Structure formats: structure tokens, C-alpha cells
Amino acid sequence: MSDRLEILLTNDDGIHSTGLRALYDALSERGNVTVVAPATDQSACGRSMSHEVDVETHELGYALHGTPSDCVVAGLAELGPDPDIVVAGCNKGANLGEYVLGRSGTISAAVEAAFFDVPAIATSMYVPVEDAPLSQIDLATDDYAEATRVTSYLVEHALEAGVFDHAAYLNVNVPVADGDPAPVEITRPSKRYEMDAERDGNRVHLKDRVWERMDPESLPDPEGTDRRAVVEGRISVSPLTAPHSTPHHEALTTLVEAYPDSARSTND
């Protein structure tokens, strides 16, 4: 594009995260980037909204004491210039599968932008973990090289290519950078869901067991899904819409048409 893009950048890991800084530096080479990001970590907050939040100026833009959705609303409606595109990320940890679409703060920021009719990209990085929790794994800016490369490419070209004529936002998941660019696969979110709960006295422990089987040799997710692509070392790009809707459902139509007779018989 001839003119520099206006880009609103946010995340859910917080304005001080390495992933956000890595994307800011990369995207600044392609456009004018305004950051409106949470002042603190807001991971897995979904589309939680606040009625009133404090805001502070920051060297990158603005730090909001609120959620990613707060940041998008504040950025689009008040704090930033009218952006051509919203970018959320780069999240430390993957956002894969249908069940995370309403749970992830990163994806929720992209969904919020979609309701403003602004194209959006949510970028997350799959970090394989074994014994140590993800929060204890230190990542450097170079580790995000794959994420910044593909996100920059999509930001620069997806608008002109007409990608957002059909998709409201893109959910992008990348492997950790290891040198050569990874191949890209257009995917669909995996349907795998394995939440579990166990009671221990007065407490109930909730466990997401989806992440316990991430070996490429035994991964149960089928070809074409976001999880399989990322685990096998490919970049996953899922074009998605908001709101999530279903096709016309004949069975529901029949059920609704029968409701008046049922309601009348109940009152008789």
C-alpha cells in the first residue's frame, strides 16, 4: 500500500510483555503503530468489559487498567487514530481450538474489533512446555521472529488481497522461531475439548487436559486443524467470523412453528 497503515496494537499479556514489543518494532516498519494495551497481565479474561478504567500514557501509547476488550473499545472510540487494522499479540502461548475463542483475551480483542467492522489479526506463539509452567519460561525478542514475520506480512498484504471481505479476523498461531521461515497452512479450529475437574475437600481443581497430548506422533487432532499444524511445525492461520453463527436450521424452524399450539394447550 502506498500510504502508511494505521495500526492499533494490543494484547492480553500486558504492555510490558516481550511479545508485544517484538510486534511493535516489526509493525512500525510498515505503519504507524499506536499501542493501547492492558497495564497488567489479563490472560484468559475473554471478552470481559469494564465500565470505567484508568489510563496512563506510555512510551508506546497507552496502558489501560482493564481488559483487552476495554483496550480495543477505548483505542477505536477515543484514544487512537482510526486504524486500518487491529493486531493483538503476540501472545506467549498458543490459542488453539474452538473452545478458546471465547476464553482468550488475545482473540477477544480481535473479536471486539470485528464488531467495530475493523479487520483484526490475533497472533499467538506455541511454546512447548514439559515440567515448568509457561509463566516460568523466559523468551527473548528473537524467539518471536516467526510471529513478527508472518504477522507483518499479513498486515501488509491481507487488506489489499481482500482477505477481510470474507473473514472478520484471523487467528494466527506460530511455532517458536528456529531459523528458516515455517510453512503456512490455512486451518480450522480444532474441536478437541478435554476440560476436567477434581474435588479436594472444599476446593475443586479445574484442569485443561488438551495440552497433555502434544506429541506429533500421537496427536488426536485431524489434518487441517490449527493444533495439528502448529504441533507439526507449521504456521496456522484460521479465518474466522464474528459473531459465531449457524446456518438456517430446519429442525429449529419446525420446533418454533409448533410453539404457539403448545403454549395454548399449556394455558388450557
TrEMBL record:
<feature type="binding site">
    <location>
        <position position="12"/>
    </location>
    <ligand>
        <name>a divalent metal cation</name>
    </ligand>
</feature>
<keyword id="KW-0547">Nucleotide-binding</keyword>
<keyword id="KW-0963">Cytoplasm</keyword>
<feature type="binding site">
    <location>
        <position position="43"/>
    </location>
    <ligand>
        <name>a divalent metal cation</name>
    </ligand>
</feature>
<dbReference type="GO" id="GO:0005737">
    <property type="term" value="C:cytoplasm"/>
</dbReference>
<dbReference type="Pfam" id="PF01975">
    <property type="entry name" value="SurE"/>
</dbReference>
<protein>
    <recommendedName>
        <fullName>5'-nucleotidase SurE</fullName>
        <ecNumber>3.1.3.5</ecNumber>
    </recommendedName>
</protein>
<comment type="similarity">
    <text>Belongs to the SurE nucleotidase family.</text>
</comment>
<dbReference type="InterPro" id="IPR030048">
    <property type="entry name" value="SurE"/>
</dbReference>
<dbReference type="GO" id="GO:0046872">
    <property type="term" value="F:metal ion binding"/>
</dbReference>
<keyword id="KW-0479">Metal-binding</keyword>
<dbReference type="GO" id="GO:0008253">
    <property type="term" value="F:5'-nucleotidase activity"/>
</dbReference>
<keyword id="KW-0378">Hydrolase</keyword>
<dbReference type="GO" id="GO:0000166">
    <property type="term" value="F:nucleotide binding"/>
</dbReference>
<comment type="function">
    <text>Nucleotidase that shows phosphatase activity on nucleoside 5'-monophosphates.</text>
</comment>
<feature type="binding site">
    <location>
        <position position="91"/>
    </location>
    <ligand>
        <name>a divalent metal cation</name>
    </ligand>
</feature>
<dbReference type="InterPro" id="IPR002828">
    <property type="entry name" value="SurE-like_Pase/nucleotidase"/>
</dbReference>
<dbReference type="InterPro" id="IPR036523">
    <property type="entry name" value="SurE-like_sf"/>
</dbReference>
<feature type="binding site">
    <location>
        <position position="13"/>
    </location>
    <ligand>
        <name>a divalent metal cation</name>
    </ligand>
</feature>
<feature type="domain" description="Survival protein SurE-like phosphatase/nucleotidase">
    <location>
        <begin position="7"/>
        <end position="193"/>
    </location>
</feature>
